[in-house]
Amino acid sequence: MRRIQERVLGYKSISSSVSDIWLLGVCYKVCLEDSSQEPVNTNGYAAFSEDFSSRILMTYRKGFASIGDSKYTSDVNWGCMLRSSQMLVAQALLIHRLGRSWRKPLHQPYDRDYIELLHMFGDSEDSPFSIHNLLKSGESYALAPGSWVGPYAMCRTWETLARRKIEENEVQDKSFPMAIYVVAGDEDGERGGAPVLCIEDALENCSEFSRGQSEWSPILLLVPLVLGLDKVNPRYLPLLAATFTFPQSLGILGGRPGASTYLIGVQDDKVFYLDPHEVQQAVNTTIDNLEADTSSYHCNVIRQIPLESIDPSLAIGFYCQDKGDFDDFCSRASELAEKSDGAPLFTVTQTRQSPKSCSTSRAQEADSFDVPDDAEGSAQDDWQLL
Predict the structure, then answer these.
(1) N or C end of the chain: which has fewer CB within 10 A?
(2) Residue 136, Cβ neighbours under 10 Å: how many?
(3) pTM for the whole thing?
(4) Please, are residues 56 and 277 in contact by the beta-carbon 8 Å criterion?
């Protein structure tokens, strides 16, 4: 299985490049000859490796309780997009609870917040962000055991799950301690319309999350995009790379067609990623077990692929802790849009725009993770090769 994935994804270990590495908003200088005004970590590659291995890894699992009424006790060969999205959301929760500077503990007992976070993503209905509960929340977006899904539907599924968590509780649900906003323009569009971040909508989401008790709250931004047909249009590649330099970066749900990964860093023209395609035994970490074996939730093998090779259907994530952080993000996003030569990844606006003014050709492009009805059989056959 691993050899097949290596051929499909085309990954390899880190190159001998001495260029700066950006990992989820943190810069690691491999070569210290040049000075920079950006905040950097000068411990170089060793510090980068420690940071990389501290990110939460979610992979295929086998041997968990069956999903709903199905007979599926494993997500092997079809759950990589769900696992990739779990990694991105886990990163948001990790920053929220423990901060961006948190590193994987070397000794037990572990932080309670860390163990509780892993429990949230366990493989059972008791874990709020399990594959079981994601599939239940995504039924209206065609999520089902044994099938795969594109980034747009995955983002909407997380939005639905988060809203249900709030509605089911009379008090604010601490398991998802942030508002969520899918930046996709026209909400009724097949893929959400043009990607326009509306500050007014972000404020409304925060108000709804806090039940009107506060004007602002931490917020998770998900930006689903289609940046080409068979491959990413080259004009977007520098813009995608630049998003990893944002302090609010949560990385990208992306990969090769039909094989989602979690992209978390960039160096030159290559991206670093965590791969969900390894099959591991299901593990359900209990909240009180501070000495649990958490090794299966981390990866020490650093892999990268050419940025130009990723699938054009992807989703970018950002986490803003407060209003000041959100304002800084909007400023950076607007600056990036101004440098896009008329083809930004997304734009920022203060108030809502009409669906017509938001529409772009990108919204009508085919999502390569979605399969036309007449091609469903062949696509499923190809998927099984993974």
Answers:
(1) N
(2) 17
(3) 0.85
(4) no
3-state secondary structure the chain: CHHHHHHHHCCECCCCCCCCEEECCEEECCCCCCCCCCCEECCHHHHHHHHHHHCCCCCEEECCCCCCCCCCCECCCCCHHHHHHHHHHHHHHHHHHHCCCCCCCCCCCCCHHHHHHHHHCCCCCCCCCCHHHHHHHCHHHCCCCCCCCCHHHHHHHHHHHHHHHHHCCCCCCCCCCCEEEECCCCCCCCCCCCCEEEHHHHHHHHHHHCCCCCCCCCEEEEEEEECCCCCCCHHHHHHHHHHCCCCCEEEEEEEECCEEEEEEEEECCEEEEECCCCEEECCCCCCCCCCCCCHHHCCCCCEEEEHHHCCCEEEEEEEECCHHHHHHHHHHHHHHHHCCCCCCCCEEECCCCCHHHHCCHHHHCCCCCCCCHHHHHHHHHHHHCC
pLDDT at 353 (0 to 100): 60
Q: Give the whole-angstrom CA distance, residue 192 versus residue 182.
A: 9
Neighbours of 369 (CB within 10 A): 25
Q: Which residues are catalytic?
A: 80, 275, 277
Percent of the chain with pLDDT over 70: 80
- The whole-angstrom separation of Cα 66 and Cα 68 is 6
- The per-residue pLDDT for range 202-258, each reduced to its tens digit, is 999 999 888 888 889 999 999 999 999 889 999 999 999 999 999 999 999 988 878
Q: How far apart are CA 153 and CA 161, in angstroms?
A: 12
- Predicted confidence (pLDDT) per residue in 273-289, tens digit: 999 999 999 988 899 89
Residue 348 φ/ψ region, left for φ over 0, alpha for ψ in the -120 to 50 degree band, beta for the rest: beta
